[in-house]
Write a structure and sequence with these properties.
The complex is a heterodimer of chains A (752) and B (99). With 752 residues, chain A is an alpha/beta fold. Helices cover 35% and strands 18% of the residues of chain A. In chain A, the strands form six sheets. An eight-stranded mixed beta barrel of chain A has the order 19-20-21-22-23-24-25-26. Chain A has a six-stranded mixed beta sheet with strand order 2-1-3-7-8-12, with helices on both faces. Chain A has a five-stranded antiparallel beta sheet with strand order 15-14-18-17-16, sandwiched between helices. The relative contact order of chain A is 0.05. Chain B is of the alpha+beta class. In chain B, the strands form two sheets. Chain B has a two-stranded antiparallel ribbon with strand order 1-2. Chain B has a two-stranded antiparallel ribbon with strand order 3-4. The relative contact order of chain B is 0.19. In chain B, helix 2 crosses helix 3. Chain B is globular. Chain B has helices at 30-35, 37-50, 81-92; strands at residues 13-15, 27-29, 61-66, 69-74. The chains are: A alpha/beta (752), B alpha+beta (99). At the A-B interface, helix 18 of A face helix 2 and helix 3 of B.
Chain lengths: 752, 99
């Protein structure tokens, strides 16, 4: 098998020599640590099956020579060999400096004089292992006299600073020069060289590609200003050989600047100005939610929407009132029993203009007077009046939270904690984010979790895209668009919840799109299994630009398609018209934005095989350039175009654009054009749409709402659509068109 | 990989290309595959090692599905051949129910 990565790792603490060599404390531990990191399932690159570890008694001369021979035997040019040794070395007197031995537990210096091969010589390592290995050979020596590996008999030359013989084909990191010594450090728990080797391999020596090469690891060790100075030799490809991969590649999330926090370093994230109030605000939201969910109307089991009772309970106040301020008067709209407007009127009617609730800049205030605290916050504004909550003697921490509390109260007054508690909580936290910017981590995390729960709770329905034609036989279902709904009966999209990520950013955007796409594809697979079609019709799902730039999102699409057992070519991702195609502030794209995004879509299409549509062309960011410059398989025309004076001209132009790639011979079929929002009220008739050579429409044209189940179009519906394609409904349509023109031609019905 | 592959004469056959293994038309039965299990594991390991590393928390898994068989094998970046052989054992087990 080509490309093997073999290692022989040796650590010897104790010797049988009687010349006073002390036992080492960490050599065996060092060897074990090196082996563990090279074989680490996450960051290592060596297979445990190809690594031989010799510790203490298992590091006899015979054992080591057997393993080293095994490593060299049958090795190929693509293979990598790493030899590591930690332990003592010995230089017999009789050798006169020509032979240095790696000390093994069975080494007997009395035998060596008669049989020099009875030990493991440095020269054996050099000639019979490193020199014979046909691939890339690497050596790490954490021992005294390590530099003798490359020394010659010319002892006046310190080869630690030289590269040795030019024919050397291995790379080596050596702890010291040929006559040098190396040491262990009890504080580090390792040999000094190995301690830094391990740190380098774990990530301190990581390069921009998230890898630690032999060269990078050696450079890192040399930069540690160790005494003695380690020596490095790199030859052939040794320097570029990857030993570990501690970080994600640049194609993923990119390496972090600091891969791990060293022991003893105290790292504290910078504080947020709102940290002090985070727990209090979250607790307030909890209490409001609890109060709203548990209180019920008299004689009914239905929970009540937020009201002054809930606010009083949640703020632990003496009383709460909702007051209406106008220029002329203040009056009570609602109040808990102990609230008396007349008693407090002198406190809640400030004389100063700047603190009058009717001032548009006013964001609430507190009033302190003889042991009484009033928290006054606006909850709703109109042109000539403002609704103000007055909370009498709330919990002290709430009054101290100032505008945060004001924003929460304003939001919860609108939110429906009783019916949709999770959505209400997400709305409250999102309002804080929109108003105050970056929030403390607990608030972010809470909202992120709750938001995902909300999205997971949505139901998926399918709206058919209908193929139109002049006869019932040519009318039918072309494909489906998956739509998210709060419930299967709800005809509207949960727009507010779907737009929450606009406030929070990419993390929320990708989470939303991942969950919805997965749910949609799985729901579609189930619906198809129970539906009337032998082969699944194509299905489309809305997706944001930012999600398409996210690798995790693309992976989730791939997984969801596989799990749903769908043909990727039958899945279309509709690019939302609400997102610009441009880098975020601080982001840099290598190409012009549309070119960059075009390449991204091509890459995704090639990778997982899905198609792309521009959604709601003609609205928001769904521009002409987007349609012309992206590799689309579908163009979905926004319903607004049907209400334009030049609607037919615009549709004709879209069709021409859709045919462009076909006319230029770049594809075998034109892009599919689908006109959205077509129903009985549309000012452009089906006949006019068909005359533009548009064959597909979507909307309430079937007379049935989007549903969880897939159905064939009833014959009556197909007859009616065919009749409209033939112009049978023209008189009514002309009236609609006249009405539209009379209103200025821009009356839009932007339904869900 | 999908098991079994449509159109293969042996219902237990699969289409697979194993690095370094030359099998006729790349169509092997599970019985044939068994003898190459170490190479299959080694090839999977080599493939996984060549993939770009992904962010923590994004595991790569190998899914093998077929009649009477559903395997999900974790593939950490430096997955060992022994781990793969252990996890693929049900695929190559003689006792596996036939489709």
């Amino acid at each position: 098998m080509a490309g093997r990565r073999i290692a022989v790792i040796i650590g010897v603490d104790n010797t049988a020599l009687d010349d006073g060599l002390p036992s080492l404390l960490f050599a065996e531990k060092d060897a074990r640590s090196v082996r563990d990191i090279l074989c680490d399932p996450e960051i290592g690159t060596f297979d445990p099956a190809d690594v031989r570890l010799h510790l203490g008694p298992e590091a006899s001369v015979a054992d080591l020579k057997a393993s080293l021979s095994w490593a060299v035997h049958d090795a190929g040019h693509d293979d990598v060999l790493l030899v590591y040794f930690a332990g003592h070395t010995m230089e017999p007197e009789w050798s006169r400096g020509t032979d240095v031995y790696l000390v093994t537990p069975d080494l007997d210096d009395r035998v060596l004089a008669h049989d020099p091969d009875a030990g493991l010589r440095m020269s054996y390592l050099k000639r019979h292992v490193l020199g014979r290995f046909p691939g890339t050979a690497l050596l790490i020596l954490d021992c005294c006299r390590a530099g003798s590996l490359i020394a010659t008999t010319e002892q006046t030359i310190d080869m630690i600073s030289h590269e040795g013989r030019p024919e050397a084909r291995y790379s080596a990191l050596m702890a010291c020069a040929r006559n040098g010594t190396t040491r262990e450090d009890a504080a580090l728990g390792h040999g000094v060289l190995t301690h830094h080797v391990l740190r380098g391999l774990r990530g301190q020596a990581v390069d921009r590609r998230g890898q630690v090469t032999f060269q990078a690891m050696s450079n890192y060790v040399q930069e540690q200003a160790l005494d003695p100075t380690p020596g490095v030799v790199t030859k052939c490809w040794g320097g570029t050989t990857v030993l570990t991969r501690p970080e994600a590649d640049e194609s993923g999330v990119g390496p972090s600047v600091v891969s791990s926090v060293p022991v003893g370093v105290d790292l504290t994230p910078l504080g947020n100005p709102l940290d002090a109030h985070s727990a209090g605000i979250l607790a307030l939201i909890d209490r409001i939610s609890h109060a709203a969910r548990t209180s019920t109307a008299s004689g009914s089991s239905e929970p009540l929407p937020a009201n002054v009772q809930h606010i009083r309970s949640a703020t632990e106040a003496d009383s709460v009132a909702l007051l209406e301020y106008t220029a002329a008067e203040i009056k009570t709209v609602d109040a808990t029993p102990r609230f008396d407007l007349e008693d407090l009127r002198h406190l809640i009617q400030p004389a100063e203009e700047s603190v009058l609730p009717t001032n548009p800049e006013w964001f609430g205030h507190t009033v302190e007077f003889t042991g009484l605290t009033l928290l006054c916050t606006p909850v709703k504004r109109a042109a000539d009046k403002v609704l103000v909550l007055v909370v009498v003697n709330p919990r002290p921490d709430l009054a101290a939270a100032g505008q945060l509390v004001a924003k929460v109260l304003e939001t919860v007054w609108r939110a429906d904690f009783a019916t949709h508690p999770l959505e209400a909580e997400v709305s409250a936290l999102t309002a804080l984010r929109a108003t105050f910017g970056r929030l403390p981590t607990p608030m972010f995390e809470r909202c992120y979790q709750q938001y995902q729960e909300v999205i997971r709770s949505l139901e998926i329905v399918f709206q058919p895209v209908v193929t139109i034609g002049p006869t019932p036989q040519r009318v039918g279902v072309h494909s489906y668009e998956a739509l998210a709904r709060r419930s299967l009966e709800d005809p509207r999209a949960p727009a507010a919840m779907l737009q929450v990520p606009d406030v929070w950013g990419d993390c929320f955007v990708v989470a939303r799109d991942k969950i919805i796409t997965e749910k949609a594809l799985m729901a579609y697979a189930r619906a198809h299994a129970e539906g009337p079609w032998d082969v699944p019709k194509p299905v489309s799902v809305n997706v944001s630009v930012r999600a398409l730039l996210s690798d995790p999102y693309i992976e989730s699409v791939r997984d969801a398609i596989a799990a749903a057992n769908l043909d990727p070519a039958a899945v279309t991702l509709e690019i939302s018209e609400r997102d610009p195609i441009e880098p975020r502030a601080g982001e840099q794209w290598p190409d012009e934005p549309h070119a960059y995004f075009h390449n991204r879509l091509v890459e995704i299409a090639r990778d997982i095989g899905v198609g792309f549509a521009v959604d709601d062309f003609g609205a928001a960011y769904a521009s002409l350039s987007r349609m012309a410059e992206l590799p689309l398989t579908q163009i979905k025309v926004d319903r607004a175009i049907l209400h334009h004076r030049q609607a037919l001209l615009e549709l004709s132009f879209v069709v021409a654009m859709a045919r462009d790639a076909l006319d230029r011979g770049e594809t075998h079929a034109p892009r599919v054009v689908i006109v959205e929002g077509v129903d009985a009220e549309s000012p452009v008739t089906l006949r006019q749409i068909a005359e533009q050579k548009i064959r597909h429409v979507q909307g309430y044209i079937t007379g049935e709402p989007a549903a969880a189940r897939l159905r064939r179009l009833p014959l009556e519906t197909r007859k009616e659509i065919a009749a409209r394609v033939n112009g049978d409904d023209e008189p009514r349509a002309i009236e609609l068109a006249r009405g539209s023109a009379a209103r200025g031609g821009s009356s839009l019905r932007r339904g869900a | 990989m999908a098991l079994p592959y449509e159109g293969v004469r042996d219902a237990a056959g699969i289409v697979i290309a194993i690095e370094g293994v030359n099998v006729a038309a790349s169509i092997v039965t599970l019985a044939t595959l068994k003898q190459y299990a170490p190479r299959l594991a080694s090839s999977l390991r080599q493939w996984r090692l060549r993939q770009p590393r992904r962010a923590a928390g994004e595991p790569t898994t190998l899914t093998v599905r077929g009649p009477g068989l559903s395997l999900t094998v974790d593939l950490p970046p430096n997955v060992s051949t022994q781990q793969l052989l252990t996890q693929l054992a049900p695929l190559l087990d003689d006792e596996r129910p036939s489709p």
